[in-house]
Amino acid sequence: MPIEILTIPCLSDNYAYAIQDSETGEVAVVDAPEAAPILRALSFKGWGLNQILLTHHHSDHIDGLDLLHQAVAAPIVGARADANRLPALELAVGEGDAFALGTQPVHIYDVSGHTKGHVAYYFPDGNAVFTGDSLMVMGCGRLFEGSAELMWDSLSKLMELPPETRIYSGHEYTASNAKFALSIEPENKALIDRARQISEARARGDDTMGPTLALEMATNPFLRAALPEVKAGLGMQGASDVDVFAEIRRRKDNF
Question: What ranges do the domains of the chain cover?
Answer without folding.
Answer: 3-253
